[in-house]
Q: What sequence folds into this?
């Protein structure tokens, strides 16, 4: 079931959404931003809700406005960021949501010092490491796994700078990949987690973008194959449509999955769309 909204209408929809047992709601906010509601708890993944900081090159311009403003997210329980790039760990978004007394921010331990530089307080911050598991309020559990944003990257303490997350909402297991390419260990880690929903990037990588310093991700083929190998019930593509300089046509994803795995469930989101997943 899908419903599209933005702004105040979207804010009201999130607040008023009541879910039956063994279900959760997802709202796509663009790039890799997703809001998840389950059991009256809300988790916001990789929110990029502003126009970012100034870009002298003029290349990193949003192709659509954010469906939500940071000021509309002050009642969120948890914000979870996968890594420090601006479209995943947006300084302006996080500083604004940081005015909330309620919200807690979960980031790779490698980036805790940066969050503090931005004005977030110790009591608001939770650091997480590769293969660490956190028990959150309301019966939610979060497990982190290292991601290869083309390569593994670690700080001086050995903390991975790029993470993906498995969020356990009781019987519903959601994987948010962050930015990553496919690699064998990832499949091994995830296979036993019985993933229901796999959120995977599809924008890919190539020589031209590497020459511009744009670090790459899974392409649409890799995303589908990872979802198949980990036996995810549903795959949802992400990281497309936001920046024309680093984009992919999602129709290629749809064509590939229809040709090779026609029984595999998937969903294509529009920004601001609600989707309710039922176990």
A:
């Amino acid at each position: 079931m899908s419903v599209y909204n933005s702004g105040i209408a979207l804010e009201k929809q999130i607040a008023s959404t009541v879910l039956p047992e063994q279900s959760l709601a997802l709202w796509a906010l663009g790039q890799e931003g997703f809001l998840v509601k389950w059991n009256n708890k809300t988790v916001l993944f990789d929110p990029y809700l502003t126009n970012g900081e100034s870009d002298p090159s003029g290349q990193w311009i949003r192709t659509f406005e954010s469906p939500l403003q940071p000021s509309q997210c002050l009642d969120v329980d948890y914000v979870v960021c996968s890594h420090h790039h601006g479209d995943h760990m947006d300084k302006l978004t996080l500083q604004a949501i940081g005015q909330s007394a309620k919200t807690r921010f979960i980031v790779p331990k490698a980036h805790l010092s940066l969050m503090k530089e931005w004005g977030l307080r110790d009591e608001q911050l939770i650091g997480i490491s590769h293969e660490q598991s956190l028990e959150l309020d309301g019966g939610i559990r979060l497990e982190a796994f290292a991601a290869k944003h083309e390569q593994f990257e670690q700080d001086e303490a050995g903390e991975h700078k790029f993470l993906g997350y498995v969020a356990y909402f009781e019987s519903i297991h959601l994987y948010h990949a962050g930015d990553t390419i496919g690699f064998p260990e990832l499949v091994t880690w995830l296979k036993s987690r019985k993933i229901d929903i796999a959120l995977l990037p599809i924008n890919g990588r190539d020589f031209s973008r590497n020459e511009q310093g744009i670090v790459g991700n899974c392409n649409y083929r890799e995303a589908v194959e990872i979802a198949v190998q980990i036996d995810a019930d549903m795959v949802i593509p992400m990281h497309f449509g936001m920046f024309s300089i680093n984009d992919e046509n999602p129709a290629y994803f749809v064509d590939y999955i229809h040709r090779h795995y026609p029984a595999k469930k998937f969903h294509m989101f529009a920004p601001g769309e609600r989707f309710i997943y039922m176990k």
